[in-house]
Automatic annotation (TrEMBL):
GO terms for molecular function: hydrolase activity; nuclease activity. This is Uncharacterized protein. It holds the Pfam family Endonuclease_1. The keyword Nuclease applies. InterPro entries: Endonuclease-I (IPR007346), His-Me_finger_sf (IPR044925). Keywords: Hydrolase, Nuclease. It comes from Kiloniella litopenaei. The keyword Cell wall biogenesis/degradation does not apply. SUPFAM superfamilies: His-Me finger endonucleases (SSF54060). Belongs to the EndA/NucM nuclease family. Transmembrane segments: none annotated. PANTHER family: ENDONUCLEASE-1.
């Protein structure tokens, strides 16, 4: 799908009111993670690093040698192996903070202590629950990279050092920015477009420009189509920016 088609699709979907509506069939985040494991069977590739991973003792374990990954923080302060460097986690490409803080439940202060309730405040919000469990927004990632990505926004970071070995994943902790490898930039763009459209979420002008460029530079892959088809079978809808 070319960029012009993307914006035509958005306009058409808005004109006919194709947006999220509550449903009792929405997946919880916990259930979505279990379904994601099944969907990625046969395509065990960590999203940000490109490492392969496998199942060991009912856990998803990255093969660091397959992509040259070396942990940024291999050892914890207690002198033990950092558990997030040796496990695969399910990452929200659009972070829960991004889609959550646009919900009233995230902004409320039920305790009256002057702080926002955040994710805890949204635990009973059906819209947040569906966004949190939306398989279109979930990808496997090495735990350390998932943690370092945090809720940072995506960007281009010229000159940033690679601190995870060979994987082209760069983080600017000071400015809270992340540059992903080029092979998944289009995937990220299409996921953000999907989330913004389906749940009426706001994207900044800068993000729209960046993701438009990324979607053009990194076209839809065969794997995206395969995953999209599998997601549609599980949760009833896929990502129209991939179809």
């Amino acid at each position: 799908m070319n960029i012009k088609s993307v914006f035509v699709l958005v306009a058409c979907m808005q004109s006919v009111g194709v947006f999220f509506s509550g449903t009792s069939e929405a997946l919880t985040f916990r259930k979505a993670k279990k379904e994601a494991v099944k969907i990625y069977k046969g395509h065990e590739v960590a999203f940000y690093s490109g490492c392969s991973y496998s199942y060991k003792e009912k856990k998803l374990v990255p093969n660091a040698a397959s992509c040259g990954y070396t942990p940024r923080n291999p050892i914890t302060k207690k002198g033990k192996i950092n558990p997030r460097t040796v496990r695969i986690e399910w990452e929200h490409v659009m972070p829960a903070w991004v889609f959550g803080h646009q919900r009233k439940c995230w902004q409320q202060d039920l305790n009256g202590d002057g702080t926002k309730d955040g994710r805890k405040g949204c635990k009973n919000d059906p819209v947040f629950a569906q966004m949190e469990g939306d398989l279109n927004n979930l990808v496997p990632a090495i735990g350390e990279l998932n943690g370092d990505r945090s809720n940072y926004s995506f960007s281009m970071l010229p000159g940033e050092p690679r601190v995870y070995g060979k994987p082209d994943f760069e983080v600017d902790f000071k400015h809270r920015k992340v540059e992903p490898r080029k092979e998944v930039r289009g995937d990220i763009a299409r996921i953000y477009f999907y989330m913004a459209d389906r749940y009426k979420l706001r994207l900044s002008k800068q993000d729209k420009q960046l993701f438009t460029a990324w979607a053009k530079q990194d076209p839809v892959s065969d794997w995206e189509r395969e995953k999209n088809s599998a997601v549609m079978k599980v949760q009833g809808n896929g990502n129209p920016f991939i179809e």
